[in-house]
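Q: Please design a sequence for this.
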């Protein structure tokens, strides 16, 4: 089942953005994803919680197929949808190496256009980037739901992850590198306690996305935050927490956070504890970090 004829996904030209991320993450990036024990562990726990033998599971943007393999090992039949032809061949090879070719079909298709022939019990989609930037998680799941309802009766499948919470906060970030000042956008490990980062306000949620409901495609913030301490505001940090699922019996959330994103602001300013910080930005789901940076306005009010 691992090999199926390629479809129109292999034709046409891809933009540079698609080739970098979007639905077209190069194989090299997947090495880091395979090593991310928090990511794989969270999805394993959620998949083992919900997937049962005989179910049909669809993975949208399957990459190397590791998340599909977790569903297959639970006894499901899995349709693993991937657009990047290099990853399609890699996933097919890995599926055979792991002896899962009778359970996993790797399908070369655009995940935003794919429509399954048969009803689906669970959809796994990890096309997640901090702030829902760059990658197409929101668009792909919204398109899948729209197409699925046109073809299949009955309820929608369960989506993993179930939700994402987008948050932001003003910070003072050290951009000193061996005495060289270089204020550049940077990613951090998903831990708020960073030795080179000082927070000025608590994290402020600006969007909560439930993937089985209507998914917002535009995000806009115009908010005042009260400084908790004195210092110099020179950056805005973005934090995204993903709820892969809720284990009702254990009364716990199965979560996985994206890397944090720190964006330097154009004009740093000093602030005193108790003063207000105005934070403004806007962007669309899937847009570039550069686009977001052009809209960020942070100032003392």
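A: Design:
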């Amino acid at each position: 089942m691992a090999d199926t004829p390629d479809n129109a996904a292999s034709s046409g030209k891809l933009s540079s953005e698609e080739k970098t991320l979007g639905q077209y993450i190069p194989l090299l990036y997947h090495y880091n994803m395979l090593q991310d024990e928090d990511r794989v562990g969270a999805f394993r726990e959620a998949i083992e919680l919900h997937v049962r033998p005989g179910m049909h599971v669809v993975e949208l943007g399957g990459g190397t197929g590791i998340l599909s393999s977790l569903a297959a090992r639970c006894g499901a039949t899995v349709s693993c949808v991937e657009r990047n032809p290099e990853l399609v061949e890699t996933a097919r090879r890995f599926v055979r190496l792991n002896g899962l070719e009778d359970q996993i079909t790797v399908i070369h298709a655009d995940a935003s256009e794919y429509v399954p022939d048969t009803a689906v019990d669970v959809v796994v989609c990890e096309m997640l980037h901090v702030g829902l930037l760059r990658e197409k998680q929101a668009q792909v799941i919204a398109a899948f739901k729209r197409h699925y309802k046109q073809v299949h009766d009955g309820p929608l499948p369960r989506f993993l992850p179930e939700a994402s919470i987008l948050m932001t906060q003003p910070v003072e970030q050290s951009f000193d590198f061996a005495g060289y000042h270089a204020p550049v956008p940077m990613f951090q490990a998903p831990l708020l306690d960073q030795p080179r980062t000082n927070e000025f306000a608590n994290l402020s949620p600006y969007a909560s996305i439930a993937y089985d409901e209507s998914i917002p495609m535009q995000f806009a913030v115009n908010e005042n935050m009260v400084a908790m301490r004195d210092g110099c505001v020179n950056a805005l940090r973005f934090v995204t927490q993903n709820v892969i699922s809720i284990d009702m019996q254990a009364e716990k959330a199965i979560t996985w956070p994206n890397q944090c994103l720190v964006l330097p602001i154009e004009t740093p300013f000093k602030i005193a504890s108790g003063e207000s910080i105005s934070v403004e930005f806007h962007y669309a789901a899937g847009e570039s970090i550069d686009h977001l940076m052009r809209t960020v306005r942070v100032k003392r009010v």
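Q: Thanks. Anything notable?
A: The first helix runs from residue 16 to 20. The two ends are 61 Å apart (CA to CA).
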